[in-house]
Amino acid sequence: MISPTRALQAADDGRLELESIVTVLSAQFAVVTGPKHLVRRRRLDTFDRRLDAAGLTLEHQVVASGERLVLGRPDTSSTVAVSVENLRWPAAADALPSGPVWDAVAPVIGIRALMVASDERRRMRRLDLRNEDGKTVARVELDEPASAAASPGRLTVRRLRGYDEQARRADRLLAGLGLRAVENGECGEPSSSQTSVNDRAVPARVLLTSALSDFLVTMRTNLPGLLDDVDTEFLHDFRVSVRRTRATLKLGRSALPEVMSSRWELAFKSLGDLTTPVRDLDVYQLDLPSMSNWLVTADPTDLDPLASHLRRKRAVARCALMRSLRSATFRRMLTEWDERLATLMDTPEDADRKHLSAGRLADRSISRAYRRVARGGAMIGADSPAEDLHGLRKRCKELRYALEVFAPLIDQRARKRAVADLKGLQDVLGRFQDTEVQRGAMRGFAEEMMAEGTTAGAVLAMGELIGHLDVEQDRARRQFDAAFARFERPSSLRLMHRLDGAR
Amino acid sequence: MRVLATYNIKGGVGKTSTAVNLAYLAAREGRRTLLWDLDPQAAATYMFRVRPRVKGGSHALVTRRRPIEAALKATDFDNLDLLPADFSYRNMDLELDDTKKRTLRLGQLLDSVAAEYDVVFLDCPPSISLVSENVMHASDTLLVPLIPATLSLRTLDQLTRFVADSQGSRPEVVAFFSMADRRKRLHREVIDAIARDHTRVADTVIPALSIIEQMAVRRAPVPAFAPTSRAAQCYEQLWAEVCPR
Known about the structure:
The complex is a heterodimer of chains A (503) and B (245).
Chain A: E1 2-9, H1 18-25, E2 30-33, E3 37-45, H2 50-53, E4 57-63, E5 66-72, E6 79-84, H3 100-109, E7 115-130, E8 136-145, E9 154-160, H4 164-175, E10 180-181, H5 204-228, H6 232-251, H7 258-292, H8 304-325, H9 328-342, H10 351-355, H11 358-378, H12 386-405, H13 412-451, H14 456-488, H15 490-500
Antiparallel strand pairs in A: 1-9, 1-10, 2-7, 3-4, 3-7, 4-5, 5-6, 7-8, 8-9
Helix pairs in contact in A: 5-6, 5-9, 5-11, 6-7, 6-12, 7-8, 11-12, 11-15, 12-13, 13-14, 13-15
Chain B: E1 2-6, H1 15-28, E2 33-37, H2 43-47, H3 57-62, H4 68-71, E3 73-74, E4 80-83, H5 92-97, H6 105-111, E5 119-123, H7 130-138, E6 141-146, H8 150-165, E7 172-180, H9 185-193, E8 200-207, H10 210-213, H11 215-218, H12 222-225, H13 230-242
Parallel strand pairs in B: 1-5, 1-6, 2-4, 2-5, 6-7, 7-8
Antiparallel strand pairs in B: 3-4
Helix pairs in contact in B: 1-13, 6-7
């Protein structure tokens, strides 16, 4: 296996002279210089940099003789190269050839698509450093830009397993040429722009503006991927930002100008509603493989007509969504929202609203949200209709958002434990509500498909799915009491008091 | 990690050529591959231009005084590492005999590098010994090269019985004809007549070709120095038949 020791570049970022490199290395090695070839190197990763977070690197390299994927792993510091053909990006893990690259990459990226994170044309040359047996004991890669705009040339000594000393010797010889080590981060990796306000005394409006601005950044960064339909997570992340914006506006009513609720809460509600049909259909499509495992008598292929139906419906819903997101109205909305956030601190308003402290708003919002969940949960009885549980789920989400928005101001350990208890309750309520909605949706799909003359097998299979959803909903309903009791247990109460009493 | 061993009780039947070429092909596909040259004659080690020396010898490896990771050497080919042979391997039987679970030790040693490799090839010395028993237990597949001759079939029978009688996990035995010469009637007859009901016999036949002998001169796998040769194609076909999915 091969791994890099360190990359070097000319002290003035200038050209690396092959002749002097070979001369200096020849003092201790037989140097075999390979031909120079042009390589197009596309660094691949998901939009949220999952490979990078897992310590993996993936490059799609194209040379005259063919294409290959080169995977770098953190565990063994080794690289794996696999020949490929006709790969196009963005693409899901399914596009990768089966084998070690797929094995390493697919579990990490999940449902996210691989995209081109950087694209450079480089002139590469490999130098094999051999010992007296003719065995290659180290490699040096000379990597120079094919255009002036690209990053400067660099030289990488690659260590071969079992020949560490030889790589060190090569490194020492090259040091004599006055090269400097390439600093980490010179590749220009994107950095997070999340901001944080953690002073309880600052006006709440500062904290709210900071949070709302971050959500707007997330919406904007996800928009191109959403418009291009790169993967389903762009829409998901976009919707989460919209939902968080709405929740923050609601939590901040007592600190923000009135126009924020009269205009912008409605605007973001409409935006959220606009994206719901496509997201719902995405979820059905993503869940279909696991749903097919629920079938007892029907065959998974009986669900093929449902899969086609979902695809068609999604295509129609997506067209409508794209029309709206590409419209001048939507562009104007984002621009105006951006401008509104920029001037939020300067809005003339009564002093109480403007100067309400972030800590005070956090305490008030969290305790109010907590009380509403506790009250709502206590009112749920054996005969409560599904709408009541749905209402409680919404209250739980409000509490969760409050804990997230005001996270910088509250005790982190207490917050984590409170979120863990709340998550348990949210999980049960989520399963109850999702199965309720899915049952109705499945019935609706079946009626539409029957009108189009679908097969009896498809309808029967969907009936089995509805039966399974019934059982799941019953199970979630039975688990509610225990989940709510956990949320309300004395230790959780104390936690909440600690949170809203952290003044 | 899948372990394939090239094994035969007889010597000079093409075990090393097969191990070297198939390991190269596995690595060329992008599989992280290790070849352990267990034969003290060190032919595979020689072909990769690596010096046949393991610090501390087989004693250090078997007793785990020296981790096998420390003895690994990269070959000149991407994704392909070698655990070199050492002349002390001639005493490996004795070393293994002194350990607990003496028939499982090689498998235990390989477990320590399981996360690093997708495929491991064991190039075995020709014998039936404690090393062979270890190889049986450590391997998923036993690749058995056969020269198309009556005595070879008898050897295959002995080997199949030996595997069947061994305790614990047993590898799949895959025999294939090697060094075959279609011009010889006996070779043709043996290839056509071999019973395929008890043992899996690969369809690919590796012919006796001088380019395979040149491996020792070129010190490289055939597909590396003669990628379009008939021999390279035969090894590719064989790999397609036996490669782990």
